[in-house]
Design goal:
Chain A: Belongs to the PMP-22/EMP/MP20 family. The structure holds two protein chains of two kinds. By secondary structure, chain A is α+β, with helices and mostly antiparallel strands. Chain A is built from four helices and five strands. Classes of the chains: A alpha+beta, B alpha+beta. At the A-B interface, helix 2 of A face helix 2 of B.
């Protein structure tokens, strides 16, 4: 029971982290700029202005956007499928479908973070990676762990 | 009485400019354009006079949120002068036909900061009284992207397709179990039980029934064995 609660808690936490990483525009941060994935926040005269992204490699940016969104979708789907499988799976079986969905989510966020690291802000000297970027990698670890857990865990046969 | 009226009409006619002398300028509606695209800002005018050789067109630009406008284009004396210092340097091209009263310009390669109002002012001497017309331009921001949408759509579509095909296969297998011999039943049972740990959320009540009846049959056979 405790294990189940822990797993569900971790899964929900992972979904939240993925959503924050995808939605919040904070993959790259400098003193006055907080940018990425969807727009750019610039600080001038103590006011934050939201502008569009300039001079980005369009295809890479859109691939990152797509895979980040997909990872959120798959993680949420995996949660629903897990809850459904809790009730409908025969005893002693593994939660493979959940595990597969979670694995795809892990793959997607890994693709997003990797493309971002390799292609965007690769040669900039000022600034560093923001909290969204960190959360993306953390949720990669969590989704991987959860996927393996789901693929290994068996439903209790009482 | 009559003299007063006559005087008044003379005075009035003298003060009010003859409307047929005013020039009427037409520009396009508010435009929305994609980043990097070319936008044609059209401007033409109506005037009672013939098109003179000294017809002039000028375009000015006022950025959104700013009160200053800058001049970006001027056509006069048969020559078109485009912006070569300002934000539209090397991006404007005159595509109008002054002989046909068309003073349109082409703004190439729309940039991020091109939101604003473009105003056209045309003069057809001696017809110079007129009101310049504005044509606002709005840049449509990076659309979440054709590529983004395509990737998401394709992946989700594939997922749905795979799930549907999976259920279809299970349904077909379940149907065939009833009509085959015992040994084949054994084989199919093993395949069925391996497949069963798959998608549990039922997509179709008939398939649930088929799966449920399959489970019951297999459980009863297990009991028998």
């Amino acid at each position: 029971m405790l294990v189940l609660g822990g797993i569900i808690l971790l899964h929900v936490t992972t979904i939240i982290l993925l959503l924050v990483a995808t939605i919040d525009n904070a993959w790259w941060i400098t003193d006055t700029v907080s940018t990425d994935l969807w727009g750019r926040w610039e600080l001038s005269n103590n006011l934050w202005h939201f502008t569009n992204l300039k001079n980005y490699p369009e295809d890479y940016l859109q691939a990152i956007q797509a895979t980040a969104v997909l990872s959120c979708i798959f993680a949420i789907l995996a949660l629903f499928v897990f809850v459904a499988q809790l009730f409908t799976l025969p005893k002693g079986q593994r939660f493979t479908f959940t595990g597969i969905l979670q694995l795809i989510a892990c793959l997607c966020i890994m693709i997003a973070a990797s493309i971002y690291t390799a292609q965007l802000h690769a040669s900039e000297t000022e600034g560093g990676y923001g909290h969204s970027y960190v959360l993306a990698w953390i949720s990669f670890v969590f989704t991987l762990f959860l996927a393996v857990t789901y693929l290994v865990l068996r439903k209790k046969s009482e | 009485m009559l003299t007063v009226l006559a005087l008044a009409s003379v005075v009035l006619l003298g003060i009010v400019p003859d409307p047929s002398q005013a020039i009427v300028i037409y520009t396009g509606w508010e435009r929305h354009a994609l980043l990097g695209s070319d936008v044609r800002l059209s401007c033409s005018f109506f005037s009672w006079r013939w098109t003179s050789d000294d017809v002039t067109f000028s375009w000015t630009y006022r950025p959104d949120g700013s009160k200053d406008s800058i001049s970006i284009f001027h056509y006069t004396g048969g020559m078109a002068y485009v912006d070569n210092k300002g934000p539209f340097r090397d991006r404007l091209e005159f595509v109008g036909n002054p002989g046909r009263r068309d003073g349109s310009i082409l703004l190439k390669n729309l940039d991020f900061s091109d939101n604003g109002t473009f105003t056209c002012d045309a003069k057809n001497p001696p017809d110079i009284v007129g009101r310049p017309q504005s044509s606002p331009l709005r840049r449509v921001p990076i659309q979440a992207g054709v590529i983004t949408g395509a990737i998401i759509g394709v992946v989700l579509g594939l997922l749905v397709l795979i799930v549907v095909i999976y259920y279809l296969m299970r349904f077909l297998v379940a149907r065939r179990v009833f009509s085959l011999s015992v040994s084949k039943h054994g084989k199919k049972k093993k395949e069925g039980s391996q497949q069963r740990q798959g998608p549990a959320p039922p997509a179709d009540p008939s398939k649930v029934k088929a799966a449920a009846s399959e489970k019951k049959k297999q459980e009863s056979r297990k009991d028998k064995k």
